[in-house]
Amino acid sequence: MSKALLVIDMLNDFIDEKGSLFIGGVGKSIIPFIKGKIAEFRQMAFPIIFVCDNHEKDDKEFEMFPPHCIANTWGSKIIEEFEVNNEEKIIKKRRYSAFYGTDLDLYLREKGIEEIHLVGVCTNICVLYTAKDARERGYVVKIYKDGVASFDEKAHEFALKEAERTLGCQII
Ligand SMILES: [Zn+2]
Predict the structure, then answer these.
(1) What whole-number distance in Å separates Cα of residue 134 and Cα of residue 128?
(2) Facing residues of 116 across strands?
(3) pLDDT of residue 115
(4) What is the 139 CA–ligand 1 centroid distance (Å)?
(5) For residue 11, how many other CB atoms are within 10 A of its CB?
(6) How far is the CA of 62 from the centre of ligand 1 (A)?
(7) Distance 60 CA to ligand 1 centre (A)
(8) What's the pLDDT tens digit per position in 107-154?
(9) Which CA distances in Å does 87 have to 41, 45, 49, 93, 118?
(10) I need a labelling partner for 161 at 20 to 30 A (CA). Which of 74, 105, 170, 171 fits?
(11) Which stretches of the chain are assigned E, i.e. beta strand?
(12) Cβ contacts of residue 52 below 8 Å, gap of 6+?
């Protein structure tokens, strides 16, 4: 079964302490694990998809969260540690789910990918709602518990349980 790695929202505004919606040290703490997974997927020649929050200046989401990841700003860029190359797919999104208003589903289907592995932030927001949309579309979803994080530890734990018990994801 062909598989892909989704690296979700590992962007300056969330992960760098100078970022406008810095989630705390937990974000940085998962970088080494994710780097390892990226290296593994590159070596196996399986696709890696970088999913990136990318908002309008006056995005509706800013009614709930402080402005962050505004298109074409430093904050919206992928952290430099991952050394993204030109062959890797970048998905820009404006909502929590990587499927909402993007070509992710089409891309995965064209590549014959049936299984997606998730890493990134935040466990209880963009990771969880991407997992939900993926499961409803019939994908096998695996979430690396050492590769996801949130500013809210309790919500992080809840999201992993919910993903496993309600959505049928595998937490590995
Ligand atoms: Zn956002």
Answers:
(1) 10
(2) 4, 141
(3) 98
(4) 24
(5) 26
(6) 8
(7) 10
(8) 999 999 999 999 999 999 999 999 999 999 999 999 999 999 999 999
(9) 13, 11, 10, 19, 19
(10) 105
(11) 2-8, 48-53, 89-93, 113-121, 140-149, 170-171
(12) 9, 11, 69, 76, 78, 90, 91, 92, 93
The one-letter amino acid code at 130 reads T
Ligand 1 centroid, distance to 50 Cα (angstroms): 15
And the tokens for 29? Answer: 């703490």
Q: Which of 19, 40, 16, 2 is nearest to 119 (CA)?
A: 40
Give all domains of the chain, ordered by start, each with its CATH number: 2-171 (3.40.50.850)
**How many helices and strands (H and E) does the chain possess?**
6, 6
Q: What are the pLDDT tens digits along the chain (172 aa)? A: 799 999 999 999 999 999 999 999 999 999 999 999 999 999 999 999 999 999 999 999 999 999 999 999 999 999 999 999 998 999 999 999 999 999 999 999 999 999 999 999 999 999 999 999 999 999 999 999 999 999 999 999 999 999 999 999 999 9
Residue 57 to residue 68: CA distance in whole angstroms: 9
